[in-house]
Amino acid sequence: MRKTIGFVALCFTVSAYAAEPFDDKFRQLDEVLPTANSYRTASGAPGAAYWQQRADYTIRATLDEAKRAITGSEQINYHNNSPDTLSYLWVQLDQNIYKKDSDARMMLTQPSREAWAKPRTPEDGYKFEGMRSILAGREFDGGYKIKTVSAGGQPLKYTINRTMMRIDLPAPLKPGQSFAFNIDWSYNINEQQVLGGRAGYEHFEDDKNDLFEIAQWYPRMAAYYDVMGWQHKQFLGSGEFTLEFGDYDVQLTVPADHVVASTGELQNANDVLTATQRDRLAKARTATAPVVIVTQEEAEKAEKSVSTASKTWHFKAANVRDFAWASSRKFIWDAQGFKKDSTNVMAMSYYPKEGNPLWGKYSTQAIIHTIDQYNKYSFDYPYPTAISVNGPVGGMEYPMISFNGPRPAKDKKTGALTWSQQTKYGLIGVIIHEVGHNYYPMIINSDERQWTWMDEGLNTFVQYLAEQAWEDNYPSRRGEARNIVDYMRSQNQVPIMTNSESLLQFGNNAYAKPATGLNILRETILGRDLFDYAFKEYARRWKFKRPTPADFFRTMEDASGTDLDWFWRGWFYTTDAVDISIDGISEYGVSTKDPEKEKAWKKAQKDAEPISISEQRNKALPKRLSEHPELKDFYNEHDEFTVTNKDRNTYAEAIEKLEPWEKKLLDQGKHLYLVDFSNVGGMVMPLILEVELKSGKKYIERIPAEVWRYSPKKITKLIVTDEPMVSLTQDPYWETADIDTSNNAWPRKVTQSRMELFKTERDRNNLMRDYNTPLKGKGDKSSKDSSSE
After folding, report:
1. What span, in angstroms and rounded, lies between the C-alpha atoms of 581 and 746?
2. Cα four-point dihedral sign 769, 771, 777, 781
3. CA–CA separation, 489 vs 680, rounded Å?
4. What are the domain boundaries of the chain?
């Protein structure tokens, strides 16, 4: 609809609708975030008094392949860098999650009775794997067997609380002091594909060998820090962990024919590698493509016999927060060095023959690509190795080493190896993701037990950036705004800022939504330059330190110079969705006061009105004026649209009073449109408006989210164009995760879909027919004995 307005009233403001109480979407987060202090500043940087604890480990462990068990002894040297005096220490016993009466096992719930008794689809029933896991968990002798806890040869008093152990100190540990103590322990290794988990062994029935992925395997110091005190939430499976940095000296005794992949650097290559393997490893350091250290032929030969001797592999790792390893005689091993700026890393992959040819082609290449890309958005990779291991764990990360699952599928009849597109990109994607975890949280040491999104969400976001740098049209699962829409529409949600163990829709909540939010922040709200600078500053500030959500939020605002409290509040603290609707458009023209133009415009508007049905039919009626033309007078020639001399005089007087700039404004001939928007979803966002003009020209207007500041539910925006506007589209590139695009355009666009037609299936439940259906492989013989008839 087009209207005219007087030139003296060319002033528009955002409309405010006060029918409901005002909901300030832009109120500051100060009421939610912790108060800044000398440990953590208001800018989001570590404060002058920032501190963190340290734990150094010396570990000696033996893998008993036959029993599938580990026995170990460790010494922990704990450094109290806090301002607090500690009377006890807490140690994590993650293997206790496999005890028969563990919280994780006892709290398991089952599908509904309906799903058990009368499944509508196979998914409604109960899977073989699920039932096997439940029954095996009732029999498996899992958890630590703690032999001794001592210091200086004297036993220490300790109390085990499920997956946590409190060690009572013989004397208070004052600030600046250290305390060394020993733990002797053992545990049985779980079969990962049966009992699940983040580590375990995989049995290969064809060659009777096992592959061990060993993690969360030694009693580890719980974190103690300024925000939480002791982080001793029980390990239930979802919330991972946060640990203290330290140096590790680890010796691993394994069967002599095993190959070991591990956190850290190998210290005794001459003892455990052949001269040929050492030579290949040296060549890999400067190679331009992966060099095979243990070939598939060599690995297959090793599979055929089992050594009764043992060999000890010695590794050291500096300034890491954890330590993991893998061991098997099945391993093929390839490596390639990567050196750039201050990064000097050996990228290595370990995999059984079942992983080839995909692993030999992609794994080490994906490691190098990950480090190259992640360095751009954070800091130079500081460690000497980066490892990807193929085994039973689908995807799990530890310092310098990750466990990744995808493999080709082997046809049971022909033995041919094939793989789907999903498997190929699943392999590349999971390696990027898990190797990327070296940055988040292995170096930027966030508290995963409390906030899963701080490592998974941030890492998934950078994973998306790295995937897009792999090839054009890389099929990333997470990151693009359009991919999160179904989740944002769903009802079964909790805010991102929910403790790790209480998350619903875990993958969508902790991985996809934060990653998507950061992508929106980068592309739509801040722009790449501001975002990338701030994001890298966060990584630089908190490298080898422990950030909290407040530190991330504050750093992003501090380094970008942008108040983003509205975004953090809406995207991270609520389940509001983006749904912005264009409700209506009114067209206005500026009145020139020129009677020749204005009355002509009014006449055109009148002529454009529809002719009533009565008027149409009355045209055919005989008219008296036609028979008596002498009845015509002035008003038969003139009407309300006739320009009079008075009109002209009035216009001349008005123009004479105008300043030159006011006269110019009247002559511009701009088209003015008042557009009504409503915020249906609750989450405020910038307006991204695609304007299409009568000539076919299109352009984008980007209006910041602050347009909603004074009226978060409904606003009216003025759009000025040089020629008539024929259409307007909000969020034309689907960059804000708007959950209903049907209300994003004016005029409304037709939504296209498909409707399936189905033939009526009669007599679906025919027991007689089903009973007499021939058995497969039995020819025409009935399922019952025909001789009995």
Report:
1. 10
2. negative
3. 12
4. 51-244, 258-425, 591-667, 669-746
As a whole number, mean pLDDT of residues 493-507 equals 94
Which residue from 226, 223, 230 is spatially nearest to 36, judged by alpha carbons?
Answer: 226
Q: Which helix (H) or strand (E) holds 253?
A: strand 246-255
> Is cis: bond before 549, omega within 30 of 0?
no
Task: Pick the closest to residue 366 from 326, 334, 322, 409 (CA basis).
Answer: 334
Closest alpha carbon to 593 in 538, 649, 549: 649
Question: What is the C-alpha radius of gyration for the chain, rounded to an integer number of angstroms?
Answer: 36
Looking at residue 762, its amino acid is R
For the beta carbon of residue 166, count every other beta carbon within 10 angstroms.
16
Tokens standing for residue 370? 């990950």
Nearest residue to 476 via CA among 490, 489, 464: 464
Tell me the longest C-alpha to C-alpha distance in the chain: 131
Half-sphere exposure of 209 (CA within 13 A, CB side): 24
Helix (H) or strand (E) holding 351: strand 343-351
Q: Which amino acid is at 651?
A: Y
Range with lowest mean pLDDT among 46-50, 89-93, 405-409: 405-409
Region class of 127: left (phi > 0), else alpha (psi between -120 and 50), else beta:
beta
Strands 401-404 and 385-390: parallel
Please enumerate in sequence order all residues whose Cβ is within 8 A of that of 596, keeping only pairs 6 or more positions apart, or say none: 643
pLDDT of residue 122: 55
Nearest Cα residue to 64 out of 306, 417, 350: 306
714 has which bridge partners? 678
Helix, coil or strand: residue 295: coil
Q: In the 8-state DSSP scheme, what is residue 90?
A: E
> What is the rounded CA–CA span in Å between residue 63 and residue 188?
10
525-583 pLDDT, tens digit per residue, is: 999 999 999 999 999 999 999 999 999 999 999 999 999 999 999 999 999 999 999 99
Chain centroid to CA 51: 30
Integer CA distances (angstroms), 496 to 241, 243, 395, in order: 18, 22, 22
**In angstroms, rounded to a whole number, what is the distance separating the alpha carbons of residues 583 and 17?**
14
* Beta bridge mates, 182: 75, 150
148 three-state secondary structure: strand
Secondary structure class of 213 (helix, strand, coil):
strand
Classified as helix, coil or strand, 704 is: coil
470 in helix, strand or coil?
A: coil
Which among 204, 477, 476 is positioned nearest to 355, based on CA atoms? 204
Residues ≥6 apart with Cβ < 8 Å to 135: none
Within 13 A of 787's CA, how many CA atoms are on the CB side? 0
Q: What pLDDT, in 10s, does the model give residues 420-435?
A: 999 999 999 999 999 9
Phi/psi at 464 (5° precision): -60, -45
At CA 417, angle to CA 415 and CA 421, rounded to 5? Answer: 150
What does the alpha-carbon distance between residue 604 and residue 439 come to, in Å, rounded to a whole number?
A: 67
Q: Is 131 helix (H, G, I), strand (E, B) or coil?
A: helix
Cα atoms found within 13 Å of the Cα of residue 95, Cβ hemisphere only: 25
Shortest CA distance to 694 belongs to which of 719, 671, 665?
671
Length of the chain: 789
Beta bridge partners of 701: 689
**Residues 65, 40: contact at Cβ < 8 Å?**
no
479: left (phi over 0), alpha (psi -120 to 50) or beta: left
Class of CATH domain 51-244? mainly beta
Question: What are the DSSP calls for 554-566, one per residue?
Answer: HHHHHHHT---HH
E-only strand ranges, 178-245: 178-188, 200-204, 209-214, 220-221, 224-225, 229-230
Q: What is the 3-state secondary structure (H, E, C) of 42-69?
A: CCCCECCCCCCCEEEEEEEEEEECCCCE
Separate counts of helices (H) and strands (E) for the chain? 23, 34
Predicted structure pTM score: 0.90
